[in-house]
Amino acid sequence: MNLKPIALAAAMLAAQTAHAQQEVGADDNRASPQQLDRVEVRRQNTDTDLRRRQPVAKQIYGRDELDKYGDTQLSDVLKRLPGVNMQGGQLRMRGLGGAFTQILVNGEPAPPGFSVEQLNPAQVERIEVSKAPTADQSAQAIAGSINIILKDAPRVVQKDLRLGLAYNHDKPVVNGSFTYGDRVAGGMAAVLPISFFSWRLLNETEGERLGRDAQGRPQRLATEGWDLPYGHGFNVAPRVNWKLGEDETLSLQGFAVRNNFRNLGHTDTTVLQGAAPTSVDDQFSNRGNFQAARLSLQYNKRFEDDQRIELRSTVGNGGAEFDTRFLGRNAAGVQTMDRRTTGEGKNRGATLSGKYSRFLGEAHSLTVGGELERRSRDEQRRTVQNGAELLPGIEGQPFDATINRSAVYAQDDWEINKQWSGYLGLRHERIRTTSEGAGSEFRNTSSVTTPLLHLNYKFDPAARDLLRMSLTRSYKAPDVQQLIARPTINTEYPTSGGNTETAPDRVGNAALKPELATGLDIAFEKYLSGGGLVSVGVFHRRITGLIRNSLVQESVPWAAVPRWVAKPINLSRANTSGLELEIKGRAAELMPGWFAPTTALNLRAALSFYDSKVKDVPGPDNRLEQQQPWSLNLGVDYRLKSLPVSMGASLAFTPSYEVQQTELTRLETGRARTIDAFILWNLSKTDSLRFAIQNLAPTAGTSNTLIRGGDYNWSERRPNTWYALNWEHKF
């Protein structure tokens, strides 16, 4: 289905209708100017107003959205935002995951190993969601960017304490956070947010696989099992601001996180056809830790009224250790498999950036800047199976990689006239990756120039409504794991024999090039007088050099017989388009005939449709990997009149769909539904109690990989509901 003509027509129709409504609204405002002034003062710092003032299309979410459900992980906030969803622990925008969706922290790319699940919403000032890139940030954002702005030093004293209990399985866990912020003498302000978190989850699993055993004979297996991930950790994000002069500031932002994790699991295998595998009663355990620290120093200086500079330096390091043990027994209870994998990785990085801005006349604001970044990773991994080294000479050998990135850019914010404003940018970015280590030596250099054009049009200069248009280039550079030639062996099939299409080995490709995307975005945003919003948007991306995993059977150096190997390659191109609808506001404003003006009910809804085609993959359903055809987000918040109690609920839904991955493989993904709810009771001006439910009535996550010829690998994962009770106190 080609959505572009339909979407463009819908956007134009919405713009025409809203323009007519806007003229009536303008007359009403002129009839009561005093009332208009009061509304402006009350709403001047709302998320909707901040969104409207942005020179480019950007969704902004502040404290109201961050605090609403009492979440202890930022990922739970993000999954409820329009156009954003979580799939397989990965953030996705417009149905596209991986590095298609860029995660930024204070405008800089997130450090290696960073996860939004490690960050407490109490440590975040706001979230900015951009659908198209800008020149002053990395253009590795084909689907868009999520910029996490950490807590800033407050203007007044802030002391907040949050303590909570949560339950998913077996026994409750404890979470909490404390934030202290104040202004001190000498023009200094500081904030210290600290959080500790813990988790304990149960997932039940089921699966069925039809394939071939190590001798190539048909084999059909059914599995049942469970896994229990649990752990604890803490993070801290202090910030200090110094006002050195009237137009001169210095800020120091830190962030540190550490968590200890463990996962236990058990799987029983039933033989439905063919010979039994080496083990049918499997147990595994995984334990380890992750830690990271980052420190940024930023200097801002304004020269007179028309010039300013910003300098920033960031250093960071981190790493992880893991120890995985797998024990397998046959039908007679005899242990046939003892495999242990241990490893550790260390990351170090430093960035240096600066930009200079000045006004050119009354209509132009010019900014030029540059960035330098250096990251390195040292890694070591070892697997011992039944007392013998797996892949001697490759496994157990050290590996390191170094990434050097440089960028220069220029941008111009142009106030063309009272109705038109524009943003023109140009960014050039170069990435050089080198690696040394057994089986992993490579060098890869990529260079991308990204022109950017954003335009805003106001139908009425005195009104709020906007038509936004963007024509941009973005890209996705291959990550280190995709480049490493060192193989990862599927241990279900020992290297003494062959394997199957459903259980391939994996290897990287040092010759990969970046995926390039040319994008068009058009959106109409209507801002209602009571603070609501109606938005209709369309987008199109043409991607060249698309990276996909190929699946071939070939002779390999780590086995004496040919093996099936999955390897990333650059395909020719793909196209993706979509239509995005969003509406939010007070129920009385959105549906005045149904609700009284005094009804304290807020509604929000987002509906998105996606379509994509990959040229070098035969259809039908030759979509981009794991891109759902549509998604729906609904939300409702209500405040009681008789009691200091408010409540709300949200629904996120994606349907089942199929993707033709290669000529040989096809992936079926089941529907996903998440229901969250909360009740907040304000006990006093300083204390509140919040009860929240996440993933109410959970659906099982299913996937099925089908191989041409009839083989398949089906799996189902059933999570449990998460319950949380939080007490919040403001000193």
Fold blueprint:
Elements: H1 4-31, H2 33-42, H3 47-53, E1 58-61, H4 63-67, H5 74-78, E2 84-87, E3 90-93, E4 101-105, E5 108-109, E6 124-130, E7 144-150, E8 158-167, E9 173-184, E10 188-200, E11 203-212, E12 218-236, E13 239-245, E14 248-273, E15 281-303, E16 307-329, E17 335-360, E18 364-385, E19 388-389, E20 398-414, E21 420-437, E22 442-457, E23 466-476, H6 480-483, E24 505-506, E25 515-527, E26 533-544, E27 547-554, E28 563-570, E29 573-586, H7 587-590, E30 601-614, E31 630-639, E32 645-654, E33 657-660, E34 665-669, E35 672-682, E36 687-694, E37 701-707, E38 712-719, E39 722-730
Parallel strand pairs: 4-7, 24-28
Antiparallel strand pairs: 1-6, 2-3, 4-5, 6-7, 8-9, 8-39, 9-10, 10-12, 10-13, 11-12, 11-38, 12-14, 13-14, 14-15, 15-16, 16-17, 17-18, 18-19, 18-20, 20-21, 21-22, 22-23, 23-25, 25-26, 26-29, 27-28, 29-30, 30-31, 31-32, 32-35, 33-34, 34-37, 35-36, 36-39, 37-38
The CATH homologous superfamily name equals TonB-dependent receptor, beta-barrel domain
- Give the averaged pLDDT, no decimals: 88
Portion of residues in helices? Answer: under 10%
- Unreliable residue stretches: 1-43
- Structural category is mainly beta
Number of DSSP helical runs: 7
**What is the makeup of the main sheet?**
29 strands, antiparallel
How much beta, percentage-wise?
over 45%
In the CATH hierarchy, the architecture is Beta Barrel
CATH topology grouping:
Maltoporin, Chain A
Computed Rg: 27 Å
Amino- and carboxy-terminal Cα gap: 56 Å
Shape: globular
**Overall CATH class:** Mainly Beta
**Count of discrete domains:** 1
Total strand segments: 39
